[in-house]
Amino acid sequence: MSLEVIHRPSATGATGAPLLFVHGSYHGAWCWEEHFLPYFAERGHDCHAVSLRGHGGSSGRDRLHDLTLDDYVADVVEAMSQIDGTPVLVGHSMGGAVAQLVARDHPEAVAGLALLNSVPPAGLGPESLRLIFRHFRDLRALRAFNKGAGAFPTRLFYSDALPEAERAAVAARVQPESDKVNYAVNKRVLAAPSAPPVPLLVLGSTADRVVSARSVQATAKAYGTEPVLLDGVGHLSMLDPRWRAVADRTHAFLKAMAPAQEAPK
């Protein structure tokens, strides 16, 4: 198995915890490159972004629909083994579910957990009716795209404020997702935890069409913490026009988690 791991070294010397970014469904490590990797590298973090197998530049595309969440967990563990120090995992959407499973099974190997627009522990099943009633056409288009037919439904994932040219450029890079993984994230992902295994940030948006504010609140409640809910940010938050608000709140979490290790702004 060959994994693509994009590395952006700290621009100031590694004075903060190393970060490992885990993308969500249909995307790859590339989604973190434009904004998040340089933003956090400039603030003293050694930054890494993994393409889960079957995604981006990683191998496994030929058997994509046989891949499982356990495979993705193994990929993150492998990527962590290549990093000097104990990383904070930053997981987006389905990648947030993977990051939660890694932190549950390997808490000693994870310094912290930032869940951005993440699949909740109970899965996305409770979202199903809302998505069917409000976004039926987009869901139908997404199912067709996953079978290799039609265009990716950008309206479901991206903010209305994202310029059309940028939306098209991002959509040109997306790919189908594993059928098994899509099924798995609609079921319970992990047993309801009583407390976070590591320092935890749960962040979402009131404008997210995929993972609603209610699901973000459910994730926070499961871990006994308070969610951070931003306004006007679409599901693909790291490429949203308001991506900096997401990055700033994540950076504030990192500073509060380990202030002695943080680089000055």
From TrEMBL:
Q: List, for all copies, the residue spans of the domain called AB hydrolase-1.
A: 19-248
Q: Does the record bear Hydrolase in its keywords?
A: yes
| Annotated keywords | Hydrolase
InterPro entries cross-referenced by the UniProt entry: AB_hydrolase_1 (IPR000073), AB_hydrolase_fold (IPR029058), Carboxylesterase_BioH (IPR050228)
SUPFAM superfamilies per the UniProt record, alphabetical: alpha/beta-Hydrolases (SSF53474)
Give one Pfam hit by family name. Abhydrolase_6
**Gene3D superfamilies in the cross-refs:** alpha/beta hydrolase
Gene Ontology molecular functions: hydrolase activity
**Annotated protein name in UniProt:** Alpha/beta hydrolase
Q: What is the superkingdom listed in this entry's lineage?
A: Bacteria
